[in-house]
Design brief:
The chain is mainly α. It contains eight helices and two strands.
């Protein structure tokens, strides 16, 4: 398995390999977010494969918060797939009664989400900083950037959950994810993923606008 994960397609510069798993993950991720931005339920099918690819990629880099996120992400993906295709009567899209319409969080809900991100990210980052350094020494390599890893993880969970509920606010969360994830990938030497994060950022801005139009149409 490790041989596959470390299979290099080519090398940039003297010592920056471009890995096959990075390329596979990049293609799946771009396809998934493009479909989500276009309000397509088929993004969930691609999302299942994307979750597996991310799990393998983060395992290879010892990014444990991001790795442990993937089984949770899979559960949220399944929830979102069901919610998007099985709306309640009051949640039906005006254009398709079998689809969930776009909605927004209230301001108190937004405040609660922001506080939750800061508190959980700090706690998770502290736990990761202990793992491999003070706890389970020798069993796990140390997470190289525990607080940034944890921050990205929590932001992704919030963004995915809001996406599963088809909340317009999810794209604001995704924009924050894109910026922090770009920093994370650059810090551990990923080649394709920082570029992909930049493309995510562009897609997020376009989706923020297109979902707002859907919200106005109750679609």
């Amino acid at each position: 398995m490790k041989e596959f994960l470390n299979y290099s397609l080519f090398t940039i510069g003297a010592d920056t390999p471009v890995l096959l798993i990075d390329l596979i993950t990049s293609v799946l991720g771009l396809t998934c977010v493009f479909l989500a931005g276009r309000n397509s339920k088929y993004n969930f099918w691609v999302g299942y494969l994307y979750t597996v690819a991310l799990f393998l990629m983060f395992w290879n880099k010892n990014l444990y918060a991001s790795l442990l996120l993937q089984p949770i992400s899979l559960g949220i993906n399944i929830l979102g797939h069901y919610r998007w295709t099985h709306p309640k009567k009051t949640e039906e899209s005006s254009q398709d009664h079998s689809a969930l319409k776009v909605s927004m969080l209230t301001w108190p809900q937004r405040g609660a989400a922001i506080v939750s991100v800061f508190v959980i990210a700090w706690l998770w980052g502290w736990l990761l900083s202990q793992l491999g350094n003070k706890w389970c020494v020798g069993l796990f390599p140390s997470d190289p950037i525990p607080y940034l890893d944890a921050c990205v993880t929590v932001l992704i969970l919030v963004a995915q959950f809001l996406s599963a509920l088809k909340k317009w606010d999810c794209w604001i969360a995704w924009l924050l994810v894109n910026v922090t994830q770009m920093m994370l990938h650059i810090s551990v030497g990923h080649v394709f993923m920082p570029i992909v994060s930049g493309l995510y950022l562009i897609n997020g801005l376009a989706s923020l606008y297109s979902w707002y139009r859907l919200y106005q149409k109750k679609a």
